Amino acid sequence: MTTRYRWVALLLLLAVAACHRGPTQARTNAELLTQAEMREHNFNNVYDAIAALRANWLTLRGTDSFLTPSEIVVYFDQTRLGGISELRGITVNSIAWTRHYSGVDATTRWGIGHGAGVIFLSSRQ
After folding, report:
1. Domains along the chain with CATH numbers
2. Residue-level pLDDT at 5
């Protein structure tokens, strides 16, 4: 019987070891883009980096008003810059990371007028 238990224990150990992934490369966060990721591809400005690496951030999800539709708003260290065209004038070296907020999350954080979402840039780590 002890041999039987040893085989069961060995099989359990092998099953657990097979399920272990071990050290793997960190997964990329779909809502976060770091300076290192942008530098890796040699982008000059933040707009080009986002357009290539997170293009869905620049896509509007439909209109919330026919008279005054919302635009994606850009913030840089809590300062509202304007629309996504402002991203063309910001170099990759001047930011540490950028994060996308959906319309719901942006409205919750910054209030009305952010229904299309926010691209938040930070110069701090």
Report:
1. 26-61+70-122 (2.170.130.10)
2. 72
- Mean of per-residue pLDDT scores for the chain: 85
Q: Tokens for 51?
A: 């357009």
State pLDDT tens for residues 70-87. 899 999 999 999 999 999
For tokens 């080009």, the residue is 48
Give, in order, the Cα–Cα distances in Å from 17 to each of 1, 14, 21, 61, 95.
Answer: 24, 5, 8, 44, 41
Q: Helices H, strands E: what count in the chain?
A: 4, 5
C-alpha 78/C-alpha 66 separation (Å) is 29
Element (H, E) at 49: helix 46-53
Q: Rounded to an integer, what distance in angstroms lies between the CA atom of residue 115 and that of residue 36? A: 29
Contact predicate 69/63, CB 8 Å: yes
**pLDDT for position 50:** 96
